[in-house]
Design goal:
It is a single chain. With 134 residues, this protein is mainly beta. The chain has one domain. It is built from no helices and 15 strands. The two termini are 26 Å apart. 39% of the residues are buried.
Length: 134
């Protein structure tokens, strides 16, 4: 858990990165997660500028960004990819992605991205929640 006064920052790379065959844990953020680095040309989706990057074949955990939470990625705020999602994604805070001054072909970015073959989970964006691309 990242507490309300906590900050996780990556000037190069992803601020929070999980990788493995399965993920059944949780991410609970009340603080600030910022990734301001650049993409690595040979590995754009495992490298910089991603606030949270979760890459796992099967996800059954809970992701929660609380009302005081800020997740800010230069390219993508929160990125999730795998085969099966059985988890919960709940946002009460702010998730931002993109850099309006970026001149690469990647464009302005994404607030959150999800890429799964099988989706059995839930996405809940509460009334206080904001997911945005700049």
């Amino acid at each position: 858990m990242n507490q309300a006064t906590g900050t996780i920052q990556a000037d190069n790379g992803s601020a929070v990165y999980t990788f493995g065959p399965s993920y059944a844990g949780g991410i609970d953020n009340s603080g600030t997660i910022i990734a301001s680095g650049n993409l690595i040309p040979d590995a754009p989706f495992i490298s910089g500028g991603l606030g949270i990057r979760m890459l796992a074949n099967t996800v059954s955990g809970t992701f929660q960004n609380r009302a005081t939470g800020l997740i800010d990625g230069r390219y993508i705020g929160a990125s999730f990819e795998g085969s099966t999602f059985n988890g919960l994604f709940r946002n009460e805070g702010r998730i931002l992605g993109g850099d309006p001054l970026e001149t690469t072909g990647f464009g302005y970015g994404f607030g959150a991205t999800f890429s799964y073959n099988v989706w059995n989970g839930d996405i809940i964006n509460e009334a206080t929640g904001s997911i945005a691309a700049r």
